Fold each of these.
Amino acid sequence: MDLKIPSTGKKRVVIIGGGFGGIEVAKKLKNLDVQIVLLDKHNYHCFQPLLYQVATGGLEPGSIAYPLRKFMQDIPNGLFRMAEVRHVDTAIQKIHTDIGDLHYDHLIIATGSTTNFFKFPDEVSDKMMQMKDIPQALNLRSFILENFEEALLTYDEEKKEELINISIVGGGPTGVELAGALGEMRKNILPKDYPEIDFRRMQIHLFESSDRILSAMHIDNSSKALKYVKDFGVNVWLNTMVTDYNGDELTIADGKKIKCGTVIWTAGVKGNPIGGLADAAMAGNRILVDEYCQVLHHNNIYAIGDVAAMINEQFPKGHPMVAPVAIQQGDLVAKNIIASIKNKEIKSFKYFDKGAMATVGRNKAVMEAKGMRMGGFIAWLAWLFVHVMTLIGFRNKITVTLGWLYNYITYDRTLRLIIRPFKNNNEKQ
Amino acid sequence: MDLKIPSTGKKRVVIIGGGFGGIEVAKKLKNLDVQIVLLDKHNYHCFQPLLYQVATGGLEPGSIAYPLRKFMQDIPNGLFRMAEVRHVDTAIQKIHTDIGDLHYDHLIIATGSTTNFFKFPDEVSDKMMQMKDIPQALNLRSFILENFEEALLTYDEEKKEELINISIVGGGPTGVELAGALGEMRKNILPKDYPEIDFRRMQIHLFESSDRILSAMHIDNSSKALKYVKDFGVNVWLNTMVTDYNGDELTIADGKKIKCGTVIWTAGVKGNPIGGLADAAMAGNRILVDEYCQVLHHNNIYAIGDVAAMINEQFPKGHPMVAPVAIQQGDLVAKNIIASIKNKEIKSFKYFDKGAMATVGRNKAVMEAKGMRMGGFIAWLAWLFVHVMTLIGFRNKITVTLGWLYNYITYDRTLRLIIRPFKNNNEKQ
C-alpha cells in the first residue's frame, strides 16, 4: 500500500537516514521547490561520536539525540516519517518500507553503517556488545553495571574477575575512547561505588589486530595514544586477533584464553545498504557511486556517507566512514540536485580532510590536521570544543558542556543507572 | 543460600527500599555502630513527584534518578545490594531475596506502593499505562509518540483520533499535573512537530470519580486547579467512574464510550508489602504499625511510608501516601533505633503536615500549608523551588533547573525521543 503523504504536485526528494549526511541534504534543499521526505527508523538524530559517553554514564542519551521532527520544523518543504526501508524498486521509482510504499523523483540513500562481525557466527557475535546506536549504548551501560552487581554476590574469585573484566576489540577511535573512559572509571569512580571489589583485579583489555592503535592517524599519534591508554591501566594487545568468544572466555589467535564477561566489539563496520540495487552497483555492503555520488547503473539515486563507496586513485577502498565525508557528500548532492533542476553544471566531489582526533580519558587527546599534530591537554580542549560545536541544538550543546564540566570537577559520572524500560508489564505492542 | 555480605560482627539493620523513607533511615544511622544494608530492585533512587515530566519529555530520567551506590558513599557503615525481596521469615529473622537470604537484627520495610487497578481484570489493566517508576515513564513517553507517528499513516479519521486522544484516570496530583503537561504540549509543541495533524481533534480527558479534582486539598484549590486544567483544553469529567477499556475505547459508568488509544491510570495506589508477616499485621496491602512505626505482632520490624498504615483518630485510614510522611517516619525510626540501643526513651510519631501543592502546566499551580492557600504564578514558583530543593544531588538540582529554564523560555520540551532499549539483539540475559 502507498504510504500516506500529503500530495503537493512537486517533485519528491526522499532521503533515507537522518544521520549526518541525510540531515545535511534536507537542510540544503529547504528553499528548493520540491517536497522533501526524510525517513529514519528512529525519531531522532544521534550524535554517534559521543555514544561511548552514554555507555559509560557520562552523558544522558537526550544530550546526544536530537528529535528529527524538531529538525524538520526548519524545513518548511519537508516532512518526516519513522520508517524502516526494505528495498527500492528502481523500475517504478518506489521504495518499500515497513509502513508503506513511496514514489521518489530523487532518492538519497544515507543509511550509514552497522557493526561488522566479519566471519563470526551469530552464536559468537550475539554474546558481544556493540555500540552503534543509543539503545545499544544504554544496554551496554546497564550490562556492565549489572555485572558489577553480580560480582558482589559470588564467592568464586575466578567468576568475580570474569564479571568485572572488560575487553574491547578494535583499536580505532571508538575502541580507544571507550578504553580511556573505562580506565578513568576504574580509577576514579568504580572503587567508590564498589568498595568491596579489589580493582587491582579488574582488567581492561584492548585488542588490535594491526601493529598500532588509531592506525588511520599518524604513527606519532598512535604512540601517544598508546601511552595515554596504558597510563589509564588498559592492557593493550597489538597484532592480536580475537578468534572466539563463548560468553565467559575470549580466545585470541595463538590460542590463549582470557576470562571476560563483557566483550565490546568496535573492530569493524560495514555499509548498511537497502535492497533492490543492481549487483554491479554494490561493492560488498557499500553502494558504488560516481564522483557526483550518483549510484552506478541507476538514475536519480544517490548514496552518501558510510554506505557509499566512491572509489578513485586517492581512495581505492572508498572514503573513510566518518561524519565529515557524509556531511560534505550531503552538501554536494543537495547542490547538484539544485543545479540540475536549474539546468546548471553539477560538480564532482572533493573531500576536504579536516583531520582526525581522539580523546583518551581525562585531559588527554591526540589530533592532527593539515600536517599539524598535537597531543595532550590542548588537544583534549580542542576535542571538547569541536564536539560541542558540532552537536545539533543549543540545548544539547549546553547540557553536554555542563555535564562535562560537572564530571571534570567532581571526577564523577553520575548516570550509573540500570534502566531497563522493557521489564514492566504495560508494554502494549 | 545466604547472601554474601561482609561480616562485621555488628548488629545489622536491613532497609528494604531506597525511596524517600529508606534513604532517610540510612542517612540518620550513618554514625551508629551497626551495619546498614540497603536493598532496592533498582540501583537508583527515583524522585517520583517528577516522573510525569520524564513521561512528557520535559526532563531526562537521569535528572530525577540518583545512583544508590553514590548515596551509600556517604554512609561508611552501609552497603547496597540490588535485590528484590520476596518474604521475611520472622521466626529466624531472615529475609529471602532473589539473590539470597539475609539475617537482620532490625528490619525496615520501606517498599512504597504500586499501582492499584482495583477490580479491573488483567486484560483491562494491561492495556492501561502506569507511571510509578522510570521505566514506566519512559515507556509512556515512547508510547504516546509512537501513537502520533502511527496517526500520520492512517486514512481513517476515526482511527486517527483514537490514536492521538489521551485519557487520564484519576484527578489526584499525578493525574492533574500530567493533564496540565499534556495540555501544554498539545498547545505549544505537538502542532509544530506534527503539522499534518489537526490538533482541534485531539482530546485530553481527565476522569475523576469524586466531585472534585485534588480532593485532598481545600475546595478552593480544587476549583482553581479545575479552571487551570480547563484553560489548557483538558476535558474534565467529575463524578465519573471508568468501568472498562478494550485498548481502543474507554467505557464510563453510564455506558458512554470514548475512543482513546492511550489511557493512563493514576487513580489508585496500594501498599507494596513483602510476604511473611502475620495476617493480623496487614490492613489490605498496607502493613499495620504502632505509633513507633513498629509492625504489629512482630519484633524488630518497622514499616514506614506508603506501605505502612499507622491508624489513629486523626488518620483512621493511615497517613497520606506522600513523601513527607515517609521521610518523617524514616527519621523517627532511625532515632528510635539509636535511642533503643542507647537505652533511651523512644518517641512516637507526630506527622508534621507541610501542606500540599500541585502544578498545572506553565505558570500555574495551587498550594496550601497551615491554613494559607495560594494559586497562580507565585504558587508555581514555589512549586519549582520546593521540587528543585528536595531533589537529591547537586547535579540533579542544576540539570532540572536549567532544563526547566530552557523549556520555559523556548516553550519546548526537547526530549521527544522514542528510545526502546530492548529492540536490539545484543541483550545477553
Note: The CA atoms of residues 180 and 229 of chain A lie 6 Å apart.
Amino acid sequence: MNRQIADALSRIRIRKPLIHHITNLVVMNDTANLTLHLGALPIMAHAADEVAEITQAASALVLNLGTLTPAQVEAMLIAGRKANELGIPIVLDPVGAGASQLRTQAGLELLSHLRIAIVRGNSAEIGALGGVGGRVRGVESVEGVSDPIAVVQTMAQTWGSVVAITGKQDVVSDGRRVIGVNNGHSWLTTVTGTGCMATTAIAAFAAVEPDYLVAAVGGLASFGLAAERAAAEAHGPATFKVALLDQVYHLTSEQLTTGARIVVLQE
Amino acid sequence: MNRQIADALSRIRIRKPLIHHITNLVVMNDTANLTLHLGALPIMAHAADEVAEITQAASALVLNLGTLTPAQVEAMLIAGRKANELGIPIVLDPVGAGASQLRTQAGLELLSHLRIAIVRGNSAEIGALGGVGGRVRGVESVEGVSDPIAVVQTMAQTWGSVVAITGKQDVVSDGRRVIGVNNGHSWLTTVTGTGCMATTAIAAFAAVEPDYLVAAVGGLASFGLAAERAAAEAHGPATFKVALLDQVYHLTSEQLTTGARIVVLQE
Amino acid sequence: MNRQIADALSRIRIRKPLIHHITNLVVMNDTANLTLHLGALPIMAHAADEVAEITQAASALVLNLGTLTPAQVEAMLIAGRKANELGIPIVLDPVGAGASQLRTQAGLELLSHLRIAIVRGNSAEIGALGGVGGRVRGVESVEGVSDPIAVVQTMAQTWGSVVAITGKQDVVSDGRRVIGVNNGHSWLTTVTGTGCMATTAIAAFAAVEPDYLVAAVGGLASFGLAAERAAAEAHGPATFKVALLDQVYHLTSEQLTTGARIVVLQE
C-alpha cells in the first residue's frame, strides 16, 4: 500500500483539491495551514446560506464536531447532502462524542442521514458513537475500547464507512480488511488539535483517492511520518507544532514510500 | 506560599483536571494548548445546549468576555449556575470591560448572578467593572486605577471573589490579604492573549487548590516564570510565544519553588 | 513615496491607533498579533450590540468576509455606518468573493451602502466583485484578471475607493495614479491568511495616513519587506510565519525608507 499512498500524495500536489471544512474554532488556523502545506487548498465556511455552494466546488468535505452548535449541525446536513448528491467524499471527526448529548446525537444524526466516506476519532469517541464503551474527559480519550481492531471492523460494517481509530497505533478498516499504521510520535499528544489535523490530512487524500481505506491510511501515515521527522527539532510542544507543519510541507512521495509503516492486521 | 503553589502544580500534573472554557475566538487555540502544556485537559464548548453537561464533568470553568455575544452570555449563565451548584470554581476574565456596554454589563451580570471564585483582569478592566476608574483602548489598559492594592482588596470584598490585577507587578487579594507576584517579562505585552492565558493558568490551579488566593498566585507565578525562561530564546514576539508555550510544558515544581517571586503586600 | 510611508510607520508606533476588526475565524489570532507587532492596538468584536461603540473608539475598521454569516454582514453595516459618520477609514477584504453568492453579494452590499476607503483582495476576488473576470478556488485565486493595472484603476473609479490587488507584484490605484509594490516573498503563498494580514497592515497605516493610496502602499510594502527579511530564517511555512511576525515587530522606518520597492505604473 506504500506505493499507492505515495502516488496519492503526488496527485494532491498536482491537482490541489479544494477541501471544504465545517470545523471547530480551536483548530481552524492549524487545519487550514495543514491543508495548504500538504498541497491542497482549504476553505472554511459554515453559514447555512453558502455551504452547499462551497461544497459543490470542493473535492472533499470535513465535518468536525468540536465547538459544535445546533446551527452548525444544520449547515453540516445541507453541505453533506450536496456532497452525497455529487459523490464528494465526507470525512467525519466526532470530536468530543461521548462528552455531551449534543455531540453524540449530532454524530449519530450525520451518520444516519448522510453517506460518510471515512470516520476518524480517538478510541473513546468511536466507542461512544458506536455504543461499545470508552470514556472521554473533554476531548481526550481516558479509556479506550477494549478491542480496537474488532471495533473499527464492526463500526465500518454498521456505518458503511471506513473507520479509523487513532492512537499509539492507528487502526483502520473498511469493514473487511483492517490495517495498522505505526507512524507518529508521542509529542502529538501534547498539542491540541492533532486529531483534527489528522482528519484534514485524510480528507486531502480522499479527495484524490477513491479507495477510502487507502486514503485514510495515506493521510495517517503522512501525518505520522511528518511528526516523526519534526520530533528531532522539538524543544517542547510549541516548537514541535511549528516543525510538524514545516515537515508536512516538505514531505515527499519518496519519503512516504520508504517511511510509511503499514501493517495488515486482518486481510 | 512557594511550597503551596509548587505542590498545586504537581497535583495538576497528577490529576489532569478538565478545564471548561467559554472563551473568545482570538485566543482559543493558545489557551487550549496552554491548558494541555500545564498538565490539565481543555475543552472549549459554548453552545447553550451542552454547556451544563460539559461543566458538570469539569474541575474549573473559565468565562472570558472577549468577542462576546448575547448568546454567549446566556451560555455562561447556564454553565455558571451548574458550576455553582456543584462547587466547581469559576474564573472570570472580563476582557474589554469598559470598552463596550455589552462587555461591562455582562461582567456585572455574571458577578451578580454567580459566585465567582477568581476575577483576573488588567488594571483598567477591573477599574471599569468596579466603577473605580481606569481607561481602556480596545482590550489594552491605557490608564490603570491609581491604587491597585486598595482596588483589589475592595473589589474582592465587594464581589466576594479573589481579585487579581495583572501588570508589571501582579496584585492579588481575597479581601483581606494582598499578595504581589513579581514574575513576568516585558515580551508578554507584545503578544495578544497573554492575559487570557494567565487566566487559564489560574483556572488550572483553582481546579486542584481550594484556597483561591493561592490558586491565583500559583497560576500567575507559573505563567510569569515560564515567560522569564522563554525570554532568553525570543527573537521577537512570535518566537517568544512559541518559547513561552514550550516553557509552560517544561516548568517543574522545583523551579516554581525557587523561582516564584511572591511578596506579601498586606497581611 | 518611501519617505511618506516611513513617516506613517513612525506615527503608528507613536499614536498606537486602535484597529477594530470584524473578521474571519481562521486568521483572528494572527491579525490581532500583526496589529500589535506593527505598533497599533487590535480589538476583535462582531456582536451587533457592541460594534458601533467599539468602532467609535477606533481609528480604522477592517471588514473581512472570510467565514461570513448573515449576522456578521449586519454587524458590518452597523459598524460601517458609524465609521462613515465619524470619518474613520474602512478597509474591506472580500475574502472568497466569487466563491459564493453570500460573499459576493455581501461585498457589493458593503460597497454600495458604505464609503470604503480601501479594498484589498487577490486578483480573482477583485475581478469577481467588479464583474470583470477572474476565477477562485475557495479563497485562492486560480485565474486572475487579465489586466490588473486597468482593473484597479477602473474599480477605484467605480467604487470611489483605493483598490489594491495583491500578488507577485501588488498593484494599487486611487482611480488616477497606479502604483506597484514589488516587496514580498513566495513563502507568503504557503501560509493561510497572509492576504488578511496584509489588509490589517493597510488598516494600521490608514489609521494615521489620510492619503489612502499612500496608506495602502505603506501597509503592503511594510508587510512585504518583513516577509523578505523573514525568508532567511524560514525552514518551511510555519517557521516562516513565526519569523514574519517577528520581523513585522522589528521593522524600522529606516529599513522601510530604503527597502520599499515602489514603482509608479501610471502617473
Note: Chain C has a mean pLDDT of 97.
Amino acid sequence: MLLAQIHLTLPAWVFDAVDTTRAYAGDGEKVALAIGLSRLNVEHASGGPFGAAVFGPDDRIVAVGVNRVLPHACSLAHAETMAYMLAQQRTQRARLNEDAAGARVGPYTLATSAQPCCQCYGATVWAGIDRLLIGARAEDVEALTEFDEGPLPADWVGELARRGIEVVRDIRRDDACEVLRAYGQRGGARY
Amino acid sequence: MLLAQIHLTLPAWVFDAVDTTRAYAGDGEKVALAIGLSRLNVEHASGGPFGAAVFGPDDRIVAVGVNRVLPHACSLAHAETMAYMLAQQRTQRARLNEDAAGARVGPYTLATSAQPCCQCYGATVWAGIDRLLIGARAEDVEALTEFDEGPLPADWVGELARRGIEVVRDIRRDDACEVLRAYGQRGGARY
C-alpha cells in the first residue's frame, strides 16, 4: 500500500477566534494573537501549546497556525509550518514575498508564541517572510515544558538576517510563558 | 477569509514507479530508489530534482516523497518532509520509532537523493528515524543547481548522532549528482 495524500487541518474553533478583517498594528498585537491561539489550542485540547500567524503588508492576517502534531500524527504540523503552508496556499506563492516573476512583494511577518524549533527555523528560511516576531524564548519552552527545541546554527539570528529576515524577540514574553507553564504543570505531551 | 485545510499529494506516476512488496536490502538499494524518484520527478515535470523514501525494519517501503514545492505552492513540500508525513500517516505515529506508550519500534530509515536542507534537517530531528542515508552532498546540490541548502548547525551529523540517528553519506553519490546536473543544465527552478 502506498499513501500519496496528506491532509492537515486547523481546528474548527479558529473560525470563531480569528478576525481577518481587522489590522493588527505593531509587533505586540501580532504576537498577542499568536499567544492567544496557543492558549486556545490547549483549552480545546486540539494540539500543543503553540500558535502562530502570518501578517501581510496591511497588518491583516494572511493565515494562522497552531500545533497539530498529535491530532494528525504528523511531526511537521507545528504552528509556524501550518501558518506558512496556509499563507502560501492563500497567496499561491511558494515564497510569500516573491511573485511568479521573481519580484519582491510584501513585507510579510510571522508572529509566533515561542521561538521556532529547529524544524520551523529551517522552514522560516524558505517561507518568504521578512520579519519574525517571537514571544517566549527556546529556553523558556525547555524550562517550562517537556518540549525539546532541537539544534540550531550558533548564530541563528544572524543567518536569518543575512537572508533578509529581521528577528525581534521577547515580545509579550511573560504572557507566552504563562501558557507554557500552565501546559507543563498539567503534564502535557512533549511533541 | 481564513483557510484551514492543507492538501498535499504525490504525483500519480509514483503508483507505477514504486513496489511496496519488495525488500530493498542494503543502503545502496535504498538510496538508488530515492535517486530514481528524483529522476522521475524531473522527467514528469512534477517538482524539483529530489526524492526520498522511508523504509521499515523489514527493508520495505513505508512511504516515499518527491519535491512538490512549485506544484503545491508550498515551501514545506520537500521530498524528505513528504516522505515523513506520509510514513507517519501510514503508521499513525507522530514519531515513527515510538509507539503510543512511548516504547521504541523500528528501526526506520530515510534514504534521500541529496543531503537534507536546513528545513528537512530539522524535520529529521523530530520524525523518528534511526538512520539517514544520503546520496549527493549539499555542496553538490549548490554546485550543480541553483538550490540553496540553508544554514545548519556546525556539527549537524553529531547533533543527529546524539539523538540516536546514524548518518551515512556519499551513497551512489555520482548517480545522484547526474540527476542534479541534468536539472541544473536545463535551468530548472531553484525551489
Note: The first helix of chain B runs from residue 14 to 17.
Amino acid sequence: MRDLTTLYGPESVAIVGASDSPGKVGNVVVRNLMSSGYEGEIYPVNPGGDSIEGLQCYPRVQDIPGGAELAVICIPAPVVPDAMRDCGAAGVGSVVVITAGFKEASPEGEALEKEITRIADENDMNMMGPNCLGAMNTHTPINVTFAADFPHKGDIAFFSQSGALCIAILDWSLDQGVGFSKFISMGNKAQLNEADFIADAAADTESQVILMYLESIEDGDAFMEAAREAVQKKPVIILKSGVSEAGAEAASSHTGALAGGDEGFAAAFRQAGIIRAGRMQEEFGKATAFIGGINIAEGRRVAVVTNAGGLGVMATDALEGAGLELAELSEETQQRLREVLPDMAAVGNPVDIVGHSDEDTYAAALDAVVRDPGVDMILPLLSPTAVLDPNRLAEYMIEQVRAHPDIPMSASFTGGESVRAANETLRSSGIPCFPFPEEAVEGLVAMVEYGEARTRLQKGQLLHYEGDMDRVREIFSSVREQGRRILLGPEAMAVARAYGIDTVPSELAESAGEAGELAEQMGFPVALKVASPDIIHKTDIGGVQLDLEDRSSVQQSFRQIMHNASEREPDARVYGVEVQKMFPPGQELIVGMAQSPPFGPLLMFGLGGIFVDLMEDVSFRLARHLTDMDVAEMIEETKAAQLLRGYRGEAPKDLDAVRETVGRIAQLTRDFPEIAELDINPFFAYENGVAALDVKMTLAEDAGGAEEHEG
Amino acid sequence: MRDLTTLYGPESVAIVGASDSPGKVGNVVVRNLMSSGYEGEIYPVNPGGDSIEGLQCYPRVQDIPGGAELAVICIPAPVVPDAMRDCGAAGVGSVVVITAGFKEASPEGEALEKEITRIADENDMNMMGPNCLGAMNTHTPINVTFAADFPHKGDIAFFSQSGALCIAILDWSLDQGVGFSKFISMGNKAQLNEADFIADAAADTESQVILMYLESIEDGDAFMEAAREAVQKKPVIILKSGVSEAGAEAASSHTGALAGGDEGFAAAFRQAGIIRAGRMQEEFGKATAFIGGINIAEGRRVAVVTNAGGLGVMATDALEGAGLELAELSEETQQRLREVLPDMAAVGNPVDIVGHSDEDTYAAALDAVVRDPGVDMILPLLSPTAVLDPNRLAEYMIEQVRAHPDIPMSASFTGGESVRAANETLRSSGIPCFPFPEEAVEGLVAMVEYGEARTRLQKGQLLHYEGDMDRVREIFSSVREQGRRILLGPEAMAVARAYGIDTVPSELAESAGEAGELAEQMGFPVALKVASPDIIHKTDIGGVQLDLEDRSSVQQSFRQIMHNASEREPDARVYGVEVQKMFPPGQELIVGMAQSPPFGPLLMFGLGGIFVDLMEDVSFRLARHLTDMDVAEMIEETKAAQLLRGYRGEAPKDLDAVRETVGRIAQLTRDFPEIAELDINPFFAYENGVAALDVKMTLAEDAGGAEEHEG
C-alpha cells in the first residue's frame, strides 16, 4: 500500500506556479490552503516573485530550505516535467498536478503524461492527477484545490473521476449538510488511481464510508484487491458511470455477445463487496446509512413502526420491491404491543401506533419490536402530529440503538420544518433519517448489502482445481502453428477434458475408415460434423449427420459430408469430420467465458438451447477471486436453477457437477488468459453428472504461448 | 360529472361542531378557514354557544339565515346522521365529514357510513369523507381542514387517500417550495371518490397537473372514464400503494396465477394514460415536468448539452436506462457547434461546451441543437463555474423555450447556493430543473409518457367483434344445470368458436362408436382425453391417448380410457372422452383472462408451453377499453413477439390472426362477465392462421345467467 501521508497531511506544501493575481489557479490554491486552517508551512514557488499573499516566494522547489513534503503544480503542461524533476531532486513526497492539457487533450499531451508519471515513479513520489481539481482533507485540515468552497467536516471519503462533478457535489453538500473526511478529484489517474485511494481511505481513522464516482478503472486486479481489503473495514459505495458505452465490440460467442462491458463491472463490484449506486442521490442515500457509525444488518427481516398507515403501506411496497422482508412478529411481541398501544392500533407488521399516539407510546412500540428475535432491522416512520414530539422520539431512538447496536434503524420522518431538528439529531448519531419511506428503505438495503458483502468475503472459499496444463499448451501450440485462433470441436473438447470437464466423446477423423473405427470405440449412435473453422452453419451445407447406428453408415456419411463441404464451401479449410457420441438430452445449459477488461475472464452461466439470446437467463462472475458462494449464487440467480432443482415433478439434476464445471472453467481461463472466448453450449445436466456437448473456443489475436496466471 | 363548486368555492360555510376550545378540531377548522383568506360567510354551528372566534354561532344548520353552501362536520360519529339530515333540510350543496369512527373503525361504523352516504345521495349533496383531514383550495382561497399549515399557491391538484400523508407532504412542500391548487384528503371515499376529484380537477383552470396517492379504487369503470377524459387535458400522475398485498388469492389458471393484483392496476393506468410513480419523490419529480406549463414530448430523442463531461456521462446512462434515445445531431448542427464552441468542445451528443465556457457559449450551443430536426427534447446540464452566470443562462433558456415550445427542456443545475436562484427562475417559468441529471431525465420521461399516453388515447381504435351470444348462453346454462363451474374441453372450445376463435376440432364422445365416428369426420390422427371436471392430471391416470391413426384404435382407446378412469378415479364425474384432431406444432403461445377487480376482465398474452410460469414472459391489458394499439403493444412487450416475427431464420407467424384472437377473447369476456378465468394454452401460431389446442374456462361462483355487459 502506498503511503499517502505527504499528500493528506504534509508538514509543508510548495505551490509551483503560485501567483498573486486574483482568479488565477495559482492564486486560488494559495488562498484556499491558507484559509483551510492548514497548520504546516506554505511555500509559494514562482521564479518571478518575492512574496505571494504575504508569504516568501521561492524560484524553484529546490530553493526551499528544508524542502516540502507536498508540491502542488499549476503551471502550463509543457513545463510540468521540469517542475516534476525539481520536486524529485528536492525530495518531495507527493505531487498534485492540477494542470490540464495531458492525455485528455492530445497525443502530445499523452506523451507528456507518460513522462511525468515516469519521473514520479523514478523519484518515488506519489502523483495525483494530472488534470484535476486537487485534494481536500477536512481533518488535517488541508485544501490544495482551486475550488470555491471547503466541505463540512464529516465521515465520507469522496473520490471523483470528474472534477466538474466535484465542484457541483461540493456546492450541493454544503446546502444539504453533508460532510466529508477527504474530497478528491482524481483527474487522469496517471499514477495514483482508485485502488490507491481506496486502500488509503480504508486504513484511515477519519472515514466511515468510501464513496466514488468512476468512469473507468485503471488496473482491475489492484482495484479488486484494494476493494476486497477495504470492505472488511468499511463500506465502499461506487457510482460507475458510462454503463451504456459498453458492449459495442463484436463477439463471436454467445457469452461474448451477452457480456456487455457492464456485466464485468457488476460482477467485479459484487465479488469485491462493493455497494453499487445507480444514481448520485442513491449513492449519498446509501452513504447516509453509514455516517456516524457503520450499520450492518445481520438479516433481511424488517419491523416497520409508524404513526400513519399510509406511510406503512408505502414502506411495505418499497421493502418488498427491494427484496427485504417484513418480519413476522412473535405472539409475545404482539401481546406486548397490545398492552402498550391504543385499541385501534395494528400490532402486526407494520405496527401502526395510530395518529393520536405520543412519543412515549411510539417508544414503547419500538421497545417491543427490538426485542423480537425475528427482527433484524427497524424502520421507524413518522408523520408530524400535534401530540408527538419528534425530538423526544429521536432521543429515545438513539438510546435504543445504543442498547441494541445489532439491530440497526433507518428512519423516515416525513415533513419539513417540524421534523428538521429531529432528523439532524438522528443523522448525527448514526441513525439515517430521510424525508420519504422509500429512501429509508434504501438505507436499510445498504446495511443489508454491506452485511452480506462482508459475509461473502469472509466465508467464501476460493476455488482451485488442477488441470493438465501441458496438454492444453500442446493443443494451443498446434492450433497456432496451423495459423488458427478458433479451435476445432475435438480440440476444444480435449482442452476441456484436460481440466476435468465432462464432455461427450468427440474425436477428429480424417478418413472414413478412421471415422468408423472411432464410432465403434465410442459406441453407437454417433453424430458426424464437418471439422472446419471456416464453416459456421454446418447444417445448412449438409455438414452434419445425426443418429448413425452402425459402422457402414458412419463411413458413408463421412464421404457424403466431405463431398458436400467441397461442393458448397470449396474455399473452406476442412480438417476432416468430427465423430461424436450421441447422448440423451439433459437439462440444456450454457457455460461460457469472455474477456472483460480490466478484470480478465468473465464467466457466464445460464439456460442453454436456442433461446439463450432471446431469454438472456444468464448470470456472470469474474473467474478471478471466484468462491464456492459465488458459483452457488451465480446459478441461483437464473431461472435455470429452478429447472435444475426439478421443475414440475422432473427429477433434480446434478447441481454439484454443474457447480464444479463452472469452477473448472474458471481455473482453465485463469490459467490461460490467452483464451479470448469460450462457450459450452449445450451443456447438459443429468440426474447424475453433466456433459459438454459442444465446446467453442477462440484464442486471443496477439498471444505469446500459454502463460500461467493465477488470479 | 358532479358539480363541486359548493365544495371548492362556496359562498358560505357552516362548521358543524365548531368550538371555542383551542386545539379541538372544531376550533382549528374555524380558525383555519378564517386565516385562509376565505371571503365568503362563515357560520359556526353549535347548540351550546352564542359566538365562536367572534362569529355568531347557530344551534343547527337550518337556523342559518340564507343557509350555507358548504357544511363541514366535526362532531362525533353517532350524531353525524342527524347533522347530515339537517344539512339536507337546509339545502346544503356539499358536506365535508371530517369525523372518524366509520368504516375504518368497526362494523357499526360501516353501517353509519352507509347511512350518511344514503342521506347525502337522497338530498343531492356532495359528501367528502368521512374520516378525512378536509379540503384546501389555494385559488379560492379556502381551508376547511384541521391541518397546521396552508400550502403555497400552485399548479398541482393533490388528492390523497391518507390524511397523515397529507400532513407530512404539506409540511415537506412548504420547505421545498412546491405549490398546490387543491390539496385534498379524500378519507373513506364513501360518496365522492377519486373519479369525481379527477373529473373536477381536469375541468378546472387552476390545476396544470393532477397528483394522487391511492391505496384502492372504489369504482373501476368510473375511474377509467374520468382518467381517460382528464388525460386529454392535463397529466394525471398516480402513486398507487399497496402493490405488495395483491395477488394472494388462489387461482386455478395460469393467467389467474400470473395476474397478481398489481397487473390490473398497471394495465388500467396504461390504458387510461395515467403516468405512474413508484415513489413519492418520483411523483413530485414527474409533476415538476408540468408545473408552469404542460410540457409534451413528441418523440424520444434527447440532445444533451453540458459544461461538464461527467454530468453528460451520467445523463447518458440515465437516458438509456429510461428507454430514451440520444439524438443523432445532423452534420449541419455539428458544423454550427464547431463554429460557436471552443476547440476542445465535443460537438457530438452529449454536446460538451467544456468548463471554461460562459453562458453565451452555452446559449449558442442550445440554439444550434434546438434547430436540429432530429431533436425532440433538450437536457441542459450545468456544473457551477466561475465563468458562467447560471441566472443569465436561465433567462436565455426561458426565451428559447418560448421560441420553440414544441421542444421541451428538463434541466439539471447541480449544486446548492450557486444555482438556487437560477433553478427557481426556471421552475417558475415551466422549465423543470433538478439537482441531479438522473432526476432531469425523470422529468423528460414524464413528458414522453404524457405525449405517448395522449397519442394512445387519441389514435387507438376500440376493438369490437360480434360473437354468437346465444350459443354461449346455451352452453353456460347447460354447464350450470349440471352443477358445474368448470367447462369440459369441448364446451370451452365451442364457446371460443362461437366468438370466431380458431380451435382444433374437438368433440365429446359418449361411446366408443361415437368416438370413432367423430374421428373419421375430423380426419386422423386424433387424440383422446378423458372428459371429467374432477380429473386434473389426466395423463397420470391413463386418461390420454395420442396419435391414433384409425377408427379401431380410437374405439379401443376409448374403452381403455373409460376403464382407467373408473379404476383410478372411481368418484370422478366422467362425461365421456374428448376426441381432438391432432395439429402440427406451431409457435406455442398462451392467451388468457382473469377477473381483476375493480377493473373487470384482464387479458394476458405471452409465450406458452411448459415454461409459462417459469419465464413469465407475459403482458396484460384490460378487456374493457381495449384498442388495436393496446393489442399491438401488448404483444410487442413480450419476447414471444420476437419469435412471432421469425426468430433465427424461422418463418414469421400470422401476427394478425394472433391479434384478432386477443381482441375476440376481450369481446367474449366483456360480453360474459360471469367467465371467472380462461386459459388458451397452448395457443399455436402458424405461418397462416392460429389454433387453440386447449381451452380452460371457469365460471364465477355466484352467477345469475349470461348477462350482457359492454365495457
Note: The mean pLDDT of chain A is 93.
